Amino acid sequence: MFVIKIGGAAGVAPEGITADIAAHVRAGEKLLIVHGGSALATELGEQLGYPPRFVTSVSGHSSRYTDRRTLEIFLMATALLNRKLVAQLQALGVNAAGLSGLDGQLLLAERKATLRIVENGKRKILRDDYTGRIQQVNLEPLRAILDSGLTPVIAPVAISAAGEPLNVDGDRAAAQLAAALGAKHLLILSNVPGLLRDIADESSSIARLPAAQLENAIEEFARGRMKRKLIGAREALQGGVTRVVLADGRTEQPVTRALKGEGTVIQ
User: What are the beta bridge partners of residue 218?
Assistant: First the structure.
């Protein structure tokens, strides 16, 4: 059993990833897919005249500010991408089932009461935010889907105790799901070949990263979204996942390559 996170950034090639996934499913392997939706949500927001606002937390993490309208756009974008991935897999002979963390209360999250950011050198507090931190994975509906022979495809939307849909980080959602399922591997596929020593040089990818060096790597090398990926990797390993691979989602057979250790292997 392993979990694949398909990044939502521009440049990732879902068709190549789904073709490789289909080969592994036909070989009898069980897997679960989590996807992002950032690029499509940005594109849709711009088309609707409501472009995204990205903010930086006081701890240095960049994220999409999710007010109510942005949440609606994010829900539309991730639902569309989810349907597309399921259709691609079905066309390849994989009996996929599209879900979000809302369905069956699969992902229960706590809404962040406030978002503390730094903007133009000043600290600010944002209150109308609909992002959440995952508190619990409800395995019962997920087990039923997996036991029926279906391949789950999950959008990174969670539900709060008050019944509110919440935008959650896709990498960390994949990590929580991998840990809850007892997965051996978590593959995080994005538009870079792994963790780069130099963000401008793709040949500077770090091949092996011991878990003990994760904190240093987060501070020294990770930029932008990569910080979240490394935090997700840390949470997956703490939850019992044996190995996390940050790999290139733009190549041929990206899943197979990642399983062979191509990318940044963290264990």
Answer: none
User: Which sign does the torsion angle of CA 23, 25, 31, 32 carry?
Assistant: positive
Contacts 24+ apart (CB under 8 A), 220-225: 221/195, 221/196, 221/197, 222/195, 223/199, 224/62, 225/9, 225/62, 225/171, 225/190
| Max intra-chain CA distance, the chain | 54
pLDDT confidence bin for 45, thresholds 50/70/90: very high
Q: How far apart are CA 73 and CA 86, in angstroms?
A: 20
Q: Take residue 16 and report the two structure tokens written for it.
A: 């190549």
pLDDT in tens, 89-105: 999 999 999 999 999 99
Are the C-beta atoms of residues 118 and 112 closer than 8 Å to each other? no
Contacts of 47 (CB under 8 A, 6+ apart): none
Residue 152 tokens read as: 């789950």
Domains of the chain by range and CATH? 2-266 (3.40.1160.10)
